[in-house]
Amino acid sequence: MIGAPVITIDGPSGSGKGTVSRLVARALGWHLLDSGALYRLTGLAGALAGLAPGDEEAHARAALAMDVRFGADAAGEPTVLLDGRDVTQAIRTEAAGERASQVASFKAVRHALLERQRRFAEPPGLVADGRDMGSVIFPSAPLKVFLTASVEERAARRFRQLKSAGINAILAAVTADIASRDARDSGRAVAPLVAAADAVTLDTTRLDAESAARQILARAAERGLDRPGSGFRPL
Ligand code: C5P
What we know:
Blueprint: E1 6-10, H1 17-28, E2 31-34, H2 35-48, H3 56-65, E3 68-72, E4 78-82, E5 85-86, H4 94-103, H5 107-118, E6 126-130, H6 133-137, E7 143-148, H7 151-164, H8 171-187, E8 200-203, H9 209-222
Parallel strand pairs: 1-6, 1-7, 2-6, 7-8
Antiparallel strand pairs: 3-4, 4-5
Bound molecules: cytidine-5'-monophosphate.
């Protein structure tokens, strides 16, 4: 049961989903779901418990059992606790992304995370960031967006992000990694990365996050999602 309006923002790694989703959620005064973090947390929970990477059922149990707390630090930056432990940085590494992409291909894991994701749809509304938000988790969302960008641009963004987080990376390796993650996310049998039929596609190769967010907010306004009372604050 979905209790509030939802804007879904799907797309591949580095398409700008995370930043754009945060800007849109902040402007509307809505909740934010970073669904990728849930797959990263499941992968990390599995690694911490010593699970074999290919053990689907054990990862599904871990996904159901994990205690996850999303919060913010004093500067307003998002934080994540897994079973009481601060894993904000640990889930952002390339290795964590790889493991997330592996466990995300397990049907049982996706099923285990389904209800947990839907529970984020609380008043006044939710901006849901992921791969299958519009196609599977919130199929009746009144606004669905699919963000794309060239693989080179996405790799360059990811590279800058990693560097600014103090994580050592090589651009060629990041590019190869993004390409292989794309192939796995788009080619998997369960909930592949695909634009929902009724999604609005935005190419962010030459569009900064703020401009992309403005375009999405304009679409939200067209659909009446910024009515007074929805908490709307213009960017
Ligand atoms: O978006 P992020 O890079 O944090 O996601 C990590 C991985 O989790 C992705 O590569 C993808 O395999 C998986 N994922 C998914 N479905 C989502 C969100 C993320 O399969 N809704």
